[in-house]
Amino acid sequence: MQELQDADIIHRVLRGDQRAYALLVDRYQHFVYTLACRYINNSEDAEEVAQDVFVKAYRSLASFDGLGKFSTWLYTITKNTCISRMRSIRPAQVVKNESQLAELGGNIDNVTMSQDSRAKKKLLANAISKLAEDEALIITLFYLHEQTVEEICQITDMSNSNVKIKLFRARKRLKEILDRHYGNDLHGYTGGK
Question: What is the Rg, in whole angstroms, of the alpha carbon atoms belonging to the chain?
Answer without folding.
Answer: 17
